[in-house]
Automatic annotation (TrEMBL):
Domain of life: Bacteria
Span of domain Mop: 2-68
High-level lineage: Bacteria, Pseudomonadati, Pseudomonadota, Alphaproteobacteria, Hyphomicrobiales
Alphabetized UniProt keyword annotations: Molybdenum
InterPro entries tied to this protein: Mo/tungstate-bd_C_term_dom, Mop_domain, Transp-assoc_OB_typ1
Signal peptide: none
Coiled-coil annotated spans: none
One annotated GO biological process: molybdate ion transport
Name the UniProt record assigns to this protein: Molybdenum-pterin binding domain protein
Provenance organism: Mesorhizobium australicum (strain HAMBI 3006 / LMG 24608 / WSM2073)
Length: 69
């Protein structure tokens, strides 16, 4: 796989929580760090994602925001 994104994190799928149209896929990238991605249920099926399978988190965003009160 060759892509333009530079933030590619390899890990293991620990959980897939399916909703009505989207799933939350949790990937353990090591050191106790879990990254969660929201993707369509169709993408989960197309990629044949399942718990325990190796996968990549690919991060390509123009901004990431965090807020607190």
């Amino acid at each position: 796989m060759k892509i333009s994104a530079r933030n590619v994190l390899e890990g293991t799928i620990t959980e897939i929580v399916k909703g009505a149209t989207t799933s939350h896929v949790r990937i353990d990238i090591g050191g106790g760090i879990i990254v969660t991605a929201s993707i369509t249920n169709e993408a989960v099926a197309d990629l044949k994602l399942e718990k325990g399978k190796q996968a990549y988190d690919v991060v390509k965003a123009s901004e990431v925001m965090v807020g607190i009160d």
